[in-house]
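new request in #modeling-help
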Amino acid sequence: MKNRTVGIVGAGQLGRMMALAGTPLGLEFVFLDPNDDAPGAHLGELVKGPFDNLDALQELANKVDVVTFDVENVPASALRKIAQHTPVWPSADALNTAQDRLNEKSLFTQLGIPTPKYIAASSLQELHSAASQCGFPCVVKARRLGYDGRGQRFLHSPEDIEDAWDSLNSDSLIVEEFVNFDCEVSLVVARNQNGDVARYPLALNTHKNGILHICEAPYYDDKLSQLAKEHADKLLNHFNYAGVLTIEFFVAHGQLLVNEIAPRVHNSGHWSIEGAHTSQFENHLRAILNWPLGDTSPRGHSTMVNFLGGMPAVETCFSVQGMHYHCYGKSNRPSRKVGHGTIVAESREQCDIVLEHFNSLYQPEL
Amino acid sequence: MKNRTVGIVGAGQLGRMMALAGTPLGLEFVFLDPNDDAPGAHLGELVKGPFDNLDALQELANKVDVVTFDVENVPASALRKIAQHTPVWPSADALNTAQDRLNEKSLFTQLGIPTPKYIAASSLQELHSAASQCGFPCVVKARRLGYDGRGQRFLHSPEDIEDAWDSLNSDSLIVEEFVNFDCEVSLVVARNQNGDVARYPLALNTHKNGILHICEAPYYDDKLSQLAKEHADKLLNHFNYAGVLTIEFFVAHGQLLVNEIAPRVHNSGHWSIEGAHTSQFENHLRAILNWPLGDTSPRGHSTMVNFLGGMPAVETCFSVQGMHYHCYGKSNRPSRKVGHGTIVAESREQCDIVLEHFNSLYQPEL
């Protein structure tokens, strides 16, 4: 087996889990990260530097066979430059689109993928106009750099607009129709340069305070799965995509409305480590190396729960039979994702029993 | 979750797989190994030095909360010394017994665990006498440092004795009755200091040229499983054992005869990475940290195949659906274990179909 070296921009928990999945494949890893003690930094070589520094990105690229990223705040222009001599997957184009909610929504419109009504706003006046066109309640979001509910505000009525304008402090906003959805689901899908595609089953996501709290898979709904597949295919083909792509949907009135995409492995795919025959991390690596993709079919039912602020105590972790623990090696900080646990069982009901046992022992921060 | 640091004597594939299993538990690793490029060396800090150097072992011990080993050729006396200030599990006593086939067999006899007839020999004359008492064919083995069929010779008749004596070149030998066994099985079992015990199902081992080739689990036989449990309990209690213990048995006439024990994670437990709810590597770490042990029940049927000399080509590895690949990052060398693959499916028959497909694409060295 030829040894390949993968460069990862960002040594966060996603980079860490990629390295843990890729090491058994014989891969070696080089990370670019400003922090020595980033979660994945000790699992490979570290190029210490900021994500937006072209020299540091070049240094990373020169050491590896392929570059990928575990963070989205990498300048697409810099990735385009390094892609001239080292393959970068997913492509800078895909990242560039995902980095800006307006670009993202415009692409959905262009490809005929249903998405909530949206209107851009770059001034307080435009914000007023956009909100009244979308109707109340609606949501105003910064076009760039939002995640886990940050950079967005609900607008219940016109009176909320000025506060939102002041607190978001950006002239690059998008107002979106509020969707009274039944639930949120996501699709994690991998594609390689040969055009092979491997789709995970839909996962059902439950958020708390704007942050993913619980993710359950598989979420069986034949009609929605087929719709999700069609939407995903359009996006994958548009970008001639390689790597894992995650698409988050609202489910409303039996239809899917795409909320956003992430051109990377995703929190809503963590269940696949134990809950699928091949994890999203392994498939992402196989995809960017243009290797055949692995079996994405589920192994029973999985329920993943995020740990925010701090990990449960060791005694809690290991006294609950049936939960797999993933500690990211991060220091504690309010609302910070520091780890997750995954229960895998024969059925959703059995997962719920383990989760209830766990919840009886653990009082999470949120 | 408190961060703990585990010291591992030896950064071979077993240490590598321990680190891969322990990182998600929030553990950090320090290895002692003479080689910078040992399979696990890059997954933690490396103390560079020989396994038998007390200063190097002390340096390792001073950096960690608990010491374990992935090699057996560590002087038990040195481990006893470092155990005075840092816990060492499994204990030096268990290692000391396993290091010497005569000590091992004597313990089996002492505990009433059936084992093939054996007689020690320390001279050519004693070898003649021992062989004639055991009867032909029989097997002569070096008491120490044998593995994967090395350090042993078959004696078909008295004419073979002198050659064996010359080639083994040791005055510390043991002659063992040849057992015309039906099959070989092994039991991997974990115990922590609280006395909690977690047993994997029996695995069926097929060797080729003295080296484990294929391991299938679970091997269901209620009577043998019960016998194996009883034998294991005696050994675990004798040593007040902590960690994973592996016991290899011959199956003959519906009975178990213990062949040897390994006070460590074992090749015949690798299937548990994908094939059990908790891998032997995770359970070994939980056991030596005195944490509650994880569920050892199987997830379907597993068939593991060792790769010797070199890994299959990337194209072969990833074109076979249903095989999980583990490359140890070792350079190629004849007969060297450089990796393994594990098939997990609903049944043994389904595993066989995948293995046949794989075998049609891959011509192994042996």
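bot summary: Residues 117-177 of chain B form a domain with the Dna Ligase; domain 1 fold (CATH 3.30.1490.20).
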